[in-house]
Amino acid sequence: MIEWFTYLQLGVAIIAGLLCLGLGIAGRKPTDLSMGATALVELLLIVQLVVAIVAPFTGNQATGSLLEFYTYLVSAILLPLAGAAWALIERSRWSTIILGVVCLSVAVMVYRMLQIWTVQGV
């Protein structure tokens, strides 16, 4: 993993999550703003997948379990897709809140992936 990119992902996911939570609490249904923020989180996760595949070939090896890392990564990629599908099917303020929870969950998962990649001993 690239450390600065991971922190960028964390920042975007936290901001997107808080934005969606705020919009949901204010009673707003999913809009281009909330869906776009979630889509940006998803896009960064796809880039993270490419980085995670290429990184070992450049000498950036994971120090933790690769199975655990990729399980987190695939799960994190699926979360925004499921949240967006929910938001498109049930257009209510609760869908916007779900998008916020999804983005904040992705932030936690990305931080855990960083720990798996860099901190754990072999």
Features:
single chain, Four Helix Bundle (Hemerythrin (Met), subunit A), 122 residues, mainly alpha
Structure at a glance:
The protein is mainly alpha-helical. It has helices at 3-25, 32-54, 66-89, 93-118.
Task: Describe this protein's structure.
This protein is mostly helical. The protein has a single domain (3-118), classed as Four Helix Bundle (Hemerythrin (Met), subunit A). It is 79% helix and 0% strand. Helix 1 (3-25) packs antiparallel against helix 2. The radius of gyration is 15 Å and the shape is elongated. The mean pLDDT is 93.
Question: Any chance you could write out the topology, listing elements then pairs?
Answer:
Blueprint: H1 3-25, H2 32-54, H3 66-89, H4 93-118
Helix pairs in contact: 1-2, 1-4, 2-3, 2-4, 3-4
Helix content: over 70%
Strand fraction: under 5%
Low-confidence stretches: none
Which of globular, elongated, flat, extended, rod-shaped describes the shape? elongated
**CATH architectural type:** Up-down Bundle
Number of strands: 0
